[in-house]
Specification:
Largest sheet: 2 strands, antiparallel
CATH topology: de novo design (two linked rop proteins)
Helix content: over 70%
Shape: elongated
CATH architecture: Up-down Bundle
CATH class: Mainly Alpha
Structural class: mainly alpha
Radius of gyration: 16 Å
Strand order of the largest sheet: 1-2
Oligomer: single chain
Order of helices and strands: EHHHHE
Number of helices: 4
Number of domains: 1
Low-confidence stretches: none
Strand content: under 5%
Length: 130
């Protein structure tokens, strides 16, 4: 499968949805009033998709994998912050589980990309075969 832009990457698409869902969850109730946690989780969730996009456009697999590693770390950060939000009562159990599951899925997809790129004989300047 040839990917011509970062928008074609399923991990980026799922990260985009996760970001929208986190933004929606953080603008209601008591959660919205915790400016520090809201700022931190929003920065982390935006970092996931941003690093996938930036890494892809760097043009080589080595740099792409570096940025994917950062995206994977940001996904873990989001999951950790979701636990905090749940523990202090900002998220109901169902919403917490949904968001945590989305973040875990993104992390697994990013990890799959990393593994695929490690095996790829193509280190091409713009197009990545996965």
């Amino acid at each position: 499968m040839t990917i011509k832009s970062f928008e074609d990457i399923i991990a980026w698409q799922k990260a985009r949805k996760l970001a929208a869902d986190v933004y929606a969850a953080t603008k209601v109730s008591q959660f919205a009033k915790d400016f520090s946690l809201v700022d931190q989780i929003r920065r982390a969730v935006v970092s996931i998709g941003s690093n996938i996009a930036e890494g892809f456009d760097r043009g080589n697999n080595k740099e792409f994998m570096t940025f994917l590693g950062i995206a994977k770390g940001s996904s873990a950060e989001v999951r950790s912050q979701l636990y905090t939000a749940f523990d202090v009562g900002y998220l109901a159990k169902g919403e917490f589980e949904k968001l945590r599951s989305e973040a875990a899925e993104v992390s697994m997809l990013v990890n799959g990309l990393i593994l695929s790129l490690r095996k790829s004989p193509i280190a091409g300047p713009r197009y990545h075969k996965l």
